[in-house]
Amino acid sequence: MIAIEKLSKTYPGGVAALREVSIDVKDGEFLVILGPSGAGKSTLMRCINRLVEPTSGRIVHDGREITAHGRKLRDVRRRFGMVFQQFNLVKRLSVLTNVLTGRLAYRSAWRSLAYNFSQEDKRIAVECLARVNMEGKALQRADTLSGGEQQRVAIARALAQQPAVILADEPVASLDPKIARQVLTYLTQVAGELGITVLCNLHQVEYTREFAGRVVGMSRGTVVFDGPVTALTDDVLHRIYYRDPDAATESEA
Amino acid sequence: MSWRLHHIVLAAAGVAFLLWCADGVELRPREVVHAVPVIASYFGRMWPPRWEFAQSVWKPALETLYVALWGNVLATLVGLPLGVLAARNVVASAPLRNAAKAVLNLFRSISELIWAIFFVAAVGLGPFPGAMALGMNYGGILGRLYAEAMENVDAGPLEALQSAGASRLQVFAFGIVPQALPQFVTYNLYWFEVAVRSATVLGMVGAGGLGFELVTTIRLFEWRETGLILLVILAMVSVIDLASTAVRARIY
Amino acid sequence: MSAATLDALVGATLHRAAAQRARRLARAALLAAPLLAALAFAAGQIGMNPLAVARGVPFMWDFLTRLLPPDLSYVPLLTRAATESVQIAVWGTLLATVLSIPLAILGAGNTTPHPIVFHATRMFLNALRSINELVFALIFVSAVGLGPFPGVLAIAMHATGMLAKFSAEEIEGVDRGQVEALQATGAGRLQVILFGVIPQVVPAFVSYAIYRFDVSIRSATVLGLVGAGGLGFSLFKTMKLFRYHETATCILVIFLLVLVSDWLCARVRAKVL
User: What is the pLDDT of residue B133?
Assistant: First the structure.
């Protein structure tokens, strides 16, 4: 279980991306964080695997505080697989090598420099590819794949980390609807099979209704809704997507 | 109104600066008009080239290529480690990066001819100091270009590697190197071409290649021989230009 | 998916991966072998080996100790030469900029009046490019005598070749849509070039011209070797007289000059674009 407690992040320059955000995530849950762009969803995810250091507040995962300084960053990060909007594969490397990069945190830096991976790592990588039905294209260069295929490989890369949690940051924002549903289906299916907790940022309501178990609605860096997807009424959506003009002037003052 | 005045003053200052420069380099319209036909007549004297002279030129011409080739290899050996140390997304320590950049600047700003003089003085006449000179000067240039190529790679995949728990060194090996590599090869090919052109003058200071023959024929007013050497250089550079274009098209 | 089918799948994929790796290694070796052989042969021809480098090190060190420290009292005597180098670079680049505009238009496939003109121009530009500034300077010094003037012409020649070829390629890469839009309005050939093509290439042209100035400064510091003015003359004179501390001063001034022009060019480029 992940406990996010009063997490705040203010970027240099004074932009407050997160204001005292508190969320509890249960193990094995598929949690969608819904909100317009600029709501602070990406920052929240990046705080969880510490690509971004929060200004205040803390995050506790399975009783260990992630945000505590001095903890080994690589150990924190390898427990959180991440999937990005732009897929972020290394385009000139093969699909298999891309998935193998998910194993890097388990191996010493010097030995992996020669692109030599153990049989076990390779086995895990191919298994992860098979879970998203991409093993047939394992030897192709990543830039020969379509967007949907690249995102499936990116999911396989996250799986190769053998993570407890997958953080998906707008994973389907760059894909057309048919492919987007396919990718989200893979993500929910695989996470369900392996018992991986998923935090998924989305800005589209339709996908949220189709795939989410629980929804957290965010607007302007704060949580404005937290509940089951069935409770996602028009009124709630209004709160997430339409800014209160009074609140706007207040925060900009 | 005021901005117009501002522009007039600026333009006047620019023209004054140019006139001052022209005066400093003895560039006067009358002299230019006078010089053009004289220079044209000198190029006229190079025609027809003395074809028989090819016999004594082909060896130094090949030597020029060897010097350029090894100059390029040495430049890579000098530039690559320094370039890596100077790249913002590879090395975190600013003092270390700045030190690497300072060394690259030093190597880059000193012309290959000055380096050649230094190496000739140190190891004696011959093509070998020429290659070393190219290695230093072009190492400085390439190192800076390598660093820029690495800094300009797509940051997305680097973030992905980082988020998977890859160490700095692993991010470098799996994210930065594969993305920057085609750019490295392109730079090397392009600067090989430039190195061949430079290698044709290193002989002026005794560092091998065609430069020695070039200076000798010009000093002796053997213009038709000079013409042949210029043709040989043109042919070499053109062939390399074509070859490197062909290779560049295939590496991406 | 059952464990057995998964195992088979993993085995097959890893087998394919291993085969691909072996094929790639073989191909790389096939490519690398002749290249390495050529390098080894070239190394032999120019008398280059690690031993020679090692033997050279003490001599280099010796030479370096004779150079250092630079004799700073020599700096005032160098200001005139340094100024001259800058002046040479300014006019060399300026002349090249002016000359390269018509040559670029004649040498670009989409703006040239005739294919013969195109090929002749490209040939001419290649000749200008492949001949080093120093070679031009050497010939010009013979023709018009010693001094900075032949240096300016030498820089102008070489830079014209570089700048015109670069611009010609830029012209060939312009956006067709804007050109067609102008043609559709019934604009004449010259009007299309002036209003459809030139505006598109101006930023790249200016940026490259500034870069060329930077390169010209560096070239202008060595033209003195063949008597074409600038800092190079002092450099070689002090060397011939074995006044190495003064030589070091020359190198120091060159270094500073290049550094300042580098910085200045980066500033100007950022401002212009």
Answer: 93
Give the tens place of pLDDT for each residue, B116-142: 988 888 788 889 889 999 999 999 999
CB-CB neighbors (< 8 A) of A102 in chain B: 164
C8 close contact with A: CB closer than 8 A: no
Chain C residues touching residue A123 (CB < 8 angstroms) = 10, 14
Mean pLDDT on A102-123: 84
Here the ipTM equals 0.88
Are the C-beta atoms of C229 and C87 separated by less than 8 Å? Answer: no
Q: Which residues contact B156 (CB under 8 A, 6 or more apart)?
A: A84, A86, A87, A88
Specify the residue for token string 């492919």.
A179
pLDDT above 50: residue A252: no
Kindly state the DSSP code that residue C107 receives in the 8-state scheme.
T
Nearest alpha carbon to residue A171 among A144, A147, A197: A147
Angle at B111 (CA atoms; ends B107, B116), nearest 5 degrees: 95
Amino acid C224 reads: G
* Closest residue to A96, CB basis, from C1, C9, C17: C17
* pLDDT score, position C106: 92
d(CA C247, CA B72): 27
Measured distance CA(B91)–CA(C183) in Å, rounded: 52
Omega prior to B48 cis, within 30 of 0: yes
Q: Say whether C9 and A130 touch across the interface (CB within 8 A).
A: yes
Is A198 strand, coil or helix? strand
**Maximum pairwise Cα distance, chain C:** 88
Contact state of B165 with A77 under an 8 Å Cβ cutoff: yes
Q: Which residue of A has its CA nearest to B156?
A: A88
Asked if B163's CB is within 8 angstroms of A49's CB, the reply is yes
pLDDT tens-digit readout, B210-221: 888 888 898 888
User: What's chain C's Rg over C-alpha atoms?
Assistant: 27
The Cα of B164 is separated from the nearest Cα of chain C by a number of Å equal to 23
CB contact under 8 A, B174 and A78: no
Q: Residue B3: its pLDDT value, please?
A: 67
Interchain contact C218–B (C-beta under 8 A) = yes
d(CA B165, CA B223): 67
String of DSSP letters for B92-150? --HHHHHHHHHHHHHHHHS-HHHHHHHHHHHH-SSHHHHHHHHHHHHHHHHHHHHHHHH
Does residue A133 contact residue A152 with C-beta atoms inside 8 Å?
yes
Helix axes B29-44, C133-144, angle to 10 degrees: 100
**CB contact, 8 Å: C264 with chain B?**
no
Which residue of A lies nearest to B155 if distances are taken between CA atoms?
A88
C143: nearest Cα among B223, B45, B35, B228: B35
* Whether B72 contacts B195, CB under 8 Å: yes
CA angle A151/A157/A162 to nearest 5° reads 135
Chain A environment of B179 (Cβ under 8 Å): 90-92
Q: Residue B182 corresponds to which amino acid?
A: P
For A72, the token pair is 């080994």
Tell whether B157 is within 8 A of chain A (Cβ). yes
CB–CB contact C126 B69 (8 Å): no
Of the candidates C1, C9, C20, the beta carbon closest to that of A139 is on: C20
Question: From CA B61, how far away is CA B57, in angstroms rounded?
Answer: 6
* C79 touching B (Cβ < 8 Å): no
